[in-house]
């Protein structure tokens, strides 16, 4: 039962990433799996149910990854102290791993491609795309930098401006990967960017991870 449900989920996501959510029907998913629509409905109520499970999985994976790299998991308003206690080393490592995650992980890359296709067709998809790929990560970095400034680790600057400056290359490289498929060069570019950024804004070199 579990294996079948997982196969349906991953097959649907692959089709959504290729043809868009609106361009894929339950019949398409069932045919791709070699099963009937009735058999599929024993696992999911409808296409929307499949989509909601995909989003739920993405949220879960994102939280697990943040925890793995010792980054804040909860919203800033709930645990502001955890943002100020995050090390620059962990931020740099997590940034590099995010590039690899959004480009090389099968689930994450297909999820991103699905949202990229659908963001201009649906307000809901546009908001989800922004939360996962654009505004969400920028706000996350803004909260981190604000607390690190309060701790005297980073220089006093506009935290939102710094967040945009820091995140912009990651965002660009993620999308450039779709055209080139070159990850090693992009990892090096991003690694150099994070190092230069920290050297520019850190208050004391003892906090640097180079």
Mean pLDDT over all positions: 93
Beta content? under 5%
- Give the terminus-to-terminus CA distance: 48 Å
Could you spell the SSE succession in H and E letters? Answer: HHHHHHHHHHH
Sheet having the most strands: none
Strand elements, count: 0
What's the short story on this structure?
This protein is an all-alpha fold and 210 residues long. 74% of the residues lie in helices and 0% in strands.
Description of the structure:
By secondary structure, this protein is mainly alpha-helical. It has eleven helices and no strands. α6 packs across α7 and α10 runs antiparallel to α11. It is elongated. The N and C termini lie far apart (48 Å). The mean pLDDT is 93.
Itemize the secondary structure elements and their pairings:
Elements: H1 2-19, H2 26-33, H3 37-41, H4 47-68, H5 80-84, H6 88-104, H7 106-118, H8 123-133, H9 135-150, H10 159-180, H11 184-201
Helix pairs in contact: 1-2, 1-4, 1-7, 6-7, 6-10, 6-11, 7-8, 9-10, 10-11
Give me some keywords for this one:
about 210 residues; mainly alpha
